[in-house]
Amino acid sequence: MAANDPEFLPSPSASQPSATPEFLPRTIPIIEEVPHIHKEVVETGQVVVRKTVHQETQAVNVPTRHDQVSVEHVPVNRYVDVPPPVRHEGDTMIIPVFREEVVVTTRILLVEEVHVRKQVVTTNTVHQVELRREAISAERIATPPPGATNTPAS
User: What is the DSSP string of 24-53?
Assistant: First the structure.
């Protein structure tokens, strides 16, 4: 298009009767391109995930605790005026045992004492326990892109 083409020239009007063509207003079209973008979801592969549980028997050493008591009879055979109470000497509890004897008078004869000792004994015992452990494996399976064919090349 040239500057003097009729489509660029304005129609004659009363306000511009004597204007020359090179000074006439011109209309220049402006063109703009606008991109149109869209997205597609394309499957490119698959992933297979497997979870397996392994079970194994394992020996576990567990400390256990119990009390062990020993009882000892200690003969005393002694007369006392008043019965002695139960008493403690260290980790030993002493329990007096009495017997009454009939004589012209009644006397108390301390026949024996029972000594009870308490000990804490710790032993290890082995217990069989079932333990589980999980493992994960993932495998990717590729799929061809859309439009691709699996024909061999000639």
Answer: S--------------------EEEEEEEEE
Q: How many CB atoms lie within 10 A of CB 96?
A: 17
Task: Return the structure tokens found at 94.
Answer: 């002493």
Asked whether the predicted pLDDT for residue 129 surpasses 60, the reply is yes
pLDDT per residue over 21-63, tens digit each?
677 777 888 888 888 888 888 888 888 889 998 899 998 898 9
Comparing C-alpha atoms, which of 126, 123, 124, 125 is closest to residue 57? 126
pTM reported for the whole predicted model: 0.36
SS3 content of the chain, % helix, strand, coil (to 5): 0, 55, 40
Question: Which of helix, strand or coil describes residue 118?
Answer: strand
| 3-state class (DSSP) for residue 127 | strand
Cα 101 to Cα 20, 34, 68, 105, 152: the distances in Å are 161, 126, 36, 9, 119
